[in-house]
Amino acid sequence: MNQTLNPTLLESVLSPLADANQSFSAFYPGESPRRQPIHTVYGGAHLFTATTASKIGQLALKSLDANAPTFVDLAQAVGLPGNEDLPRDRDQLIQLQTRLAMKPRSVRDEYPAAWLAYTVFQRVVEKLKREAVEDFRIDFEDGFGQRPDAVEDKEAMRTAEEVARGMLDDTLPPFIGIRIKPFSDELMARSARTLDLFVTTLIAWTDGKLPNNFVVTLPKVTHAEQVSALVTLFQMLEARTALSEGALKMEIMVETTQSIIGPNGGSTLPSLISASRGRCVAAHFGVYDYTASCNITAAHQSMIHPACDFARHAMQVALGGTGIWLSDGATNVMPVAPHATPRDGSPLTNAQENANRLAIQAILRLNADHIRHSLKNGYYQGWDLHPAQLPIRYATVISFFLEGLDAAARRLRNFIDKAAQATLAGDVFDDAATGQALLNFFLRAINCGAVSEEEVSLTGLSLAEIRTRSFHKILIDRSRTDG
Fold it and tell me: Given CB 3.0 to 4.6 Å as the disulfide criterion, which of 48, 173, 251, 253 pairs with 219?
């Protein structure tokens, strides 16, 4: 006769396991349901004003008009699929553009490369006019440099006032923050003072309010005590001002080999996240400092260097499931022509104009290739340093989502049907992670303006359902409705 285990003995085994499961879930709660920006624009603090984001948008539109004035030009610049077959003749281009504007669906079936190029171009223009900058970081580090203390003090307070003015006038991007200097022995006191001056000045101007999605970036993090120190400063500032407890958030920058692997041979990143005590929202990869820390010479430092791929994957492995956003770095080759117009107003020579055109084309393609490399490797956010990079960023990202739209929509629709049937039948559906990943594809695409509401309907889900951000909740709600 079989006997069940003694309940007391069973409890002695399962109780510690339940505690361990809860601890695991606390550190790995899953992907964050919040909107993640697709880029962060970094700019020197001395240049920041309340209208910086709108000015960058205007400059980005001008650069698009100068470098890729038509949808064919943009398709060729970023290397969209089928761009080689698009018309170069002006009359043919105008005729095709008219057809696309009037009957985009029929052109899509007949000429998919033209539909993609036209749609990407239109959505890039719309994005630049509506929300050119998603995230901006007021930079007191590399973009600001080493300046006298009195100058940095003044700029910390001035930029805080500009942020307050932007909050009042609604001119700030959806995400914003500051990057302070590293917490090294030489710079930690200066960094802490800048943070103190900025936050206290801002709070004084706004009656205790921070901008939406405000974050403090800590660069060149090498060990957990630096993160702990920043959190302690946050607590002191919150206690001294009208800020609520936990209001100040941070992000870390992974820019050294020690940020990846510590002295014990294990990953440093989990200890950095734990040290943040729930305040860290993102980890940004610093391409050029990291490659320099690997003794890679400047001539070979690149976004696509194998050392960078290793570091990015190490970040994904260490931080997957924690809810920490991951961001790639920036292409540091700016889309700027090598030959400027002479000060006396005389025209460039034909050779100079041709050199400018070829140089810009090569740089635009390089930027697009780097962004596409990030996207293919699961990094959906990166840095931009120049307004001319924004059209390339949006064109590449929008194209990435549109190219995968039909396949992802079919998979998600089939997944929802399969999961709903299992739920109704009482069967176990154990692949919800894949369903959530497909849902995340559309969330990212919607947030950056890559897909339309009509295109979302291909999934079989409503826009409201997708915006619940939870595959599990969609299944529960549908099972209740069907039941």
Answer: 253
What confidence tens digit (pLDDT) does each residue in 238-260 have? 999 989 999 999 999 999 999 99
- In order, the DSSP letters of 24-49 are HHHH---S--S---SEEEEEEGGG--
User: CA 117, CA 71: separation in Å to the nearest integer?
Assistant: 6
Bridge partners (DSSP) of residue 176 are: 136, 214
Asked if 286 and 327 touch (Cβ cutoff 8 Å), the reply is: no
Of 430, 325, 433, 322, which Cα lies nearest the Cα of 24?
Answer: 322
Sequence-ordered alpha helix ranges (H) in 337-387: 350-376
**Which residue in the block uniquely carries the two structure tokens 């008009």?**
65
Identity of the amino acid at 474: I
The answer on pLDDT for 447 being more than 70 is yes
Distance CA 288, CA 307 (A): 11
The identity of residue 119, as a single letter, is T
What pTM, to 2 d.p., does this model score?
A: 0.91
pLDDT for 35 beyond 50: yes
Listed in order, the ranges of the chain carrying CATH 3.20.20.360 are 39-58+129-402
Assess contact for 292 and 308: CB atoms under 8 A: no
From CA 434, how far away is CA 413, in angstroms rounded? 12
**Alpha-carbon distance 135 to 218, whole Å?**
16
Residue partners of 112: CB distance under 8 A and separation at least 6: 82
Distance CA 220, CA 446 (A): 33
CATH homologous superfamily of 39-58+129-402 equals: Malate synthase, domain 3 (3.20.20.360)
Distance CA 470, CA 371 (A): 27
Q: Does residue 252 contact residue 216 with C-beta atoms inside 8 Å?
A: no
For range 266-288, the mean pLDDT: 96
Q: Alpha helix (H) ranges present in 79-171?
A: 90-102, 104-110, 112-131, 149-169
**Gap between the terminal Cα atoms of the chain:** 42
Instruction: Note the residue count of the chain.
Output: 483
Q: Which of 232, 220, 341 is nearest to 283 (CA)?
A: 220
Q: Which DSSP letter does residue 267 get?
A: B
Residue 401, number of CB atoms within 10 A of its CB: 23
Let me know: does 406 contact 452? Beta carbons within 8 Å: no
8 A C-beta contact, residue 291 and residue 301 = yes
Report d(CA 407, CA 161) in Å as an integer.
48
Residue 465's closest CA among 479, 454, 477? 477
